[in-house]
Amino acid sequence: MTGKGRLLRDKMADSGLVHIMAAHSPLSARLAKEAGFDGIWASGFELSALYGLPDVSLVSMTQHIEMMRAMADRVDLPIVADIDTGFGNAINVIHAVQQYERAGASAVVIEDKSFPKVTSLVADGRQDLLRIEEFQGKIEAACQTRDDAAFLVIARDEALIAGLGQHEALQRAAAYEEAGADMILIHSKQKTPDEVESFVRAWKGRAPIVIVPTAYPEMTADRIRALEKIRMVIYGNHAIRAAVTAMKDVFASILKDGGIQNVDKKIVSVEEIFRLQDMDLVKVNEQRYLR
Questions:
Q1: Fewer beta carbons below 10 Å: N end or C end of the chain?
Q2: Which residues are designated catalytic?
């Protein structure tokens, strides 16, 4: 196997906290690497948005894994694969873990919602959770299936998202750790970090915590480190949001200005796109091999 899981574990051991940026394409993954992030979040939400679809389990495993594989071909960063509910029951999870590990992932994140899931942060969304015992079976299946013991299986605990409170969230996290989860991702839609900070302080397990501070953006790296139990922070949808912001602004300016004469000065050059495409290698190889 590739040992990609070990790469991610080593990064966490070296820095104490890894910063993982969402991506939805090889291009966005390369930009995340060049910016200096520790790894890539192969986001189901971002890929759904890229297809113009709601994040309700409509994107197939084939679509998601092919995009993840394309990203792995272009960047050598660890990739944390967002596989939602595992595409079904424990049998589906076995197949998914085999495929994602072979495709170059360092980790998978599996959430304890029922299939099909509804994205966590949408207002008044259906947030049905599996029975604890059923999700334990999915985590056990994932852990027993991986070929590389360093490959990370991360259990995503959605009890706070479902409004079930801290006690339920802690109970589920402990059960998932018992089932073999390497890390626990705790998610919240509260607008401040208070709920997550309270959970982390109350957590007595040994499994490190993962957070996705989309809803509570004032959760800075310093604040995260102060809690001492969080080892991974995922910026879960900022690539697609940044892309949409930029495209909307540029498109509106072109129509307003009656041309590209103003926006052309504000966007990257065609030469920068060539660089990101490695067009220089094309010229080198043409000179070397085309005779």
A1: C
A2: 55
